Amino acid sequence: MKKIFYILLLLIAFFACTKKNSQNQIIVTEDDSLTAYLSKANDFSSTTIKREKYIQKAFAIIINQENDSLQRANLFRVANRYYNLNDWNKYREITNIVLEKAKISKDTLSIAKAYSYLGDFYGSQSLPDSAFFNYFKAEKIHLQQNDNISLARARLNKANLQYNESDFSGSEISVIKALNALKSVKSSDMYFESYNLLGLIYNELGDYGKAIDYHNKALKSIDEVTIPVEFQSKPTSMNNLGLVYQNLNKDKLAIPYFLEGLKQKKDLILYKPFVYALLLDNLGYSRFKIKESIGLPALFYESFKIRDSLKLTIGVIVSQIHLSEYYASKGDKIKALQYSNEALQTAQNSKNNRNLLLPLKQLAIIEPTKAAEYNKEYIHINDSLQKADRNIAEKFSRIEYETDEIKQENTNLTVQNRNLVYIFGSILILGLFLYIIKAQKAKNRELLYKQEQQKANEEIYNLMISQQSNVETIRVIEKKRVAQELHDGVLGRMFGVRMNLDSLNNFNDELASKQRNSYIVELKNIEQDIREISHDLSREKSELINNFVAIVDNLFEEQKKTFNSKLVSSIDSSIKWDLMTNAVKINLYRVVQESLQNINKYANAKTIKVEFKKGIDNLLLQISDDGVGFNVKKAKKGIGLLNMLSRIDECNGVFEIQSRKGEGTIIKVTIPI
Question: Ranges for the Histidine kinase domain (predicted)?
Fold first, then answer.
């Protein structure tokens, strides 16, 4: 298990500070101060506080610029500076800003790059699922854009994450895919990273021959012109090759590699102090294994001091274990136990069970009496970690599968949505077409109704004219009869009485008196006859005035003759029909006629009551029946009902229906006089 700590420490150390250096080239802009701020923010020889201030000044300038490709590129540079300071919260904050701006501008490449940066963030926070998911999204975008360099970088990011999570097979596949993307591209730094990672993978898998081959390939791929000095590629390869020989227990062959790497001490301390600490520790440990005391335990202490200052938990634990082994070999059990316990405490504080393995293994050796207890816990943790490693490998595969599946589902959903748009569009057009047809039919029905109404009005008008003609004829006949009565009857009798009274003027006897009295009685009879003729003339005038009543009475008589329902009618004699227009009379007649028709068809009524009443300033018509009734709210308004409403509206009146099932119906019409 000691090997895996060395490898993980080296990998984290190498990629933690070299990954972003490819972004350190500053594009010179017209704003010299921005260029200067970005340059000083990446000055590794400066203090962290000063570098952070320069980053803040650069960001203050960039954030006020227009959202274009230059602004997004500069924001990525700001994120890089925070990355190199290990300020993960600021790194994530800036990355999210760039991602949002890239989405607004539909800048696909910047979106993919932002996903890669977020993958780095989640990886640093020990959230491998989220990290892998973001790397995978970036890979998919670069694959669609045929951007081989960015595609290779995304795949290397995945490979590093898989390696750190002990998914060595998955990491190997991802590195090989990255190399395939680099076939037609010259990128010495990514070739170096790919070969170096393959060497680490095979070293971990125990295939040391392949590990040495790939580390040598990585060493040969180093181009000092194109690879920045910050990478410190050669010392890294020297350390990795030495580590393979150390794992082969060929420490004499390993030591020269460590010494070669330490020749660049000055640059290592400046750019990669953790690699410098690795080389010191590995050199000391190889010398310790071959029982060579040169520089011991100073090499362990110097490495421990650097790692502790950089807060490299794994490195600190390894240094403490090596010091424990060293003092145990010297017979100083107290110090050996001290450093082992300190290593155990450091591991427990890190809350990473993987860090507990080395301290437990060392304690089992130093304290044989508790060896069973330590070994039991070691086995338990190791088994759980192996299970977790298998689960994480499966989880990475599942993320890739589910992401592709979601992509396919989204494609299918797009097709379905398009089909739904077509279907709904067709339905909408068909619905619009049907609506137009229905509206046209309604207009036709309305026109037909108006034509029928006009025809009905003409019929009623003709009926009233005919009735008026009949009344006029009767009036003429009656006038002739009255004239004949007056001429032949009343006038003749009055003439006879006058002559007789004249003849009696000369007589004053009792007989003459009796005859005069009889003639006076005759005059009274003539007076009564004249009164009767006057009454006949008054009735004639009433009939002439109230011819509408006669028309309505005719309608009622037809109703009584045709249907079994009992009809009770009442027309207020005080209504002045002569003050109403013919239009009002026609519409009232039609409302009564239509109401009687509806009652006869649907109501099944035994009694019908029609009342005309005179109000203060209006005419009231009420038609009621004791039929089956209906639900006024739910009933459809047929053309008959609409006709009645239209007629009353034409008269500026109010039309009201009251009805309930089983309780009959009441129609109330109010028309202003």
Answer: 588-673
